[in-house]
């Protein structure tokens, strides 16, 4: 159960669930690549045509919480509409101070199609993202996220 897309994400060693390391040159690309990593864990995203467009938005109190909620919103597309996404675009990232607290927001679009078991190579079913081992870090090459998907 080791999947990866070069330059986007790699699977790391974990017992029972899927542990991913995702890269991005900036935060927007990190969130885009995290969405692709989520869906590529479930299906071969190279076989997904983005014929349906869905808006995606998430808010969080820090970067890890924002990433968790972003992944959760993308996963809702699968469970509510049976959509798999082959491309995710994060178009805006905001940080605001609301009532003295920082608030993070990311907006974007997911390009999807309805899951078809005859077309899409089913891999594993992801139940949800988790906070286990979740980190969002600035690196010399850009940004890196680590997170576990509950399967």
Identify the notable features of this structure and list them briefly:
151 residues; Archease, Possible Chaperone, Chain: A, domain 1; three-stranded antiparallel β-sheet; 9 strands; globular
What does this structure look like?
The chain is an alpha+beta fold and 151 residues long. The chain has one domain (7-150): Archease domain (Archease, Possible Chaperone, Chain: A, domain 1, 3-Layer(bab) Sandwich). Helix content is 23%, strand content 45%. The chain has two helices and nine strands; from the N terminus they run βββαβαβββββ. The chain has helices at residues 27-42, 63-81, and strands at 4-5, 9-12, 18-24, 52-60, 83-98, 101-114, 128-129, 135-139, 142-150. The longest helix has 19 residues, at 63-81. It is globular. The termini are close together. The mean pLDDT is 94.
What is the CA-based Rg, rounded?
A: 15 Å
* Assigned CATH superfamily: Archease domain
Distance between the termini: 11 Å
CATH class division = Alpha Beta
CATH fold-type name: Archease, Possible Chaperone, Chain: A, domain 1
Give the low-pLDDT segments: none
Principal-axis shape equals globular
Average pLDDT reading: 94
Count of helical segments?
2
Helix proportion range: 10-25%
Strand content: over 45%
Count of discrete domains: 1
Q: How many β-strands, per DSSP? A: 9
**Largest sheet composition:** 6 strands, antiparallel
Which CATH architecture? Answer: 3-Layer(bab) Sandwich
Overall SS class: alpha+beta
H/E element string? Answer: EEEHEHEEEEE
Please give the oligomerization state of what you see.
Answer: single chain
């Amino acid at each position: 159960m080791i999947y990866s897309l070069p330059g986007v994400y790699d699977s790391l060693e974990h017992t029972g669930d899927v542990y991913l390391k995702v890269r991005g040159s900036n935060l927007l690309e990190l969130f885009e690549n995290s969405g692709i990593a989520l869906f590529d864990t479930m299906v071969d995203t190279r076989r997904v045509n983005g014929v349906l467009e869905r808006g995606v938005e998430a808010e969080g109190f820090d970067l890890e919480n924002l990433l968790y909620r972003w992944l959760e919103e993308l996963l809702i597309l699968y469970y509510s509409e049976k959509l798999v996404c082959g491309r995710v675009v994060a178009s805006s990232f905001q940080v605001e101070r609301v009532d003295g607290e920082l608030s993070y927001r990311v907006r974007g679009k997911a390009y999807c199609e309805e899951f078809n078991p005859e077309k899409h190579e089913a891999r594993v079913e992801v139940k949800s993202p988790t906070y286990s081992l979740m980190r969002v870090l600035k690196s010399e090459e850009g940004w890196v996220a680590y997170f576990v998907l509950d399967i």
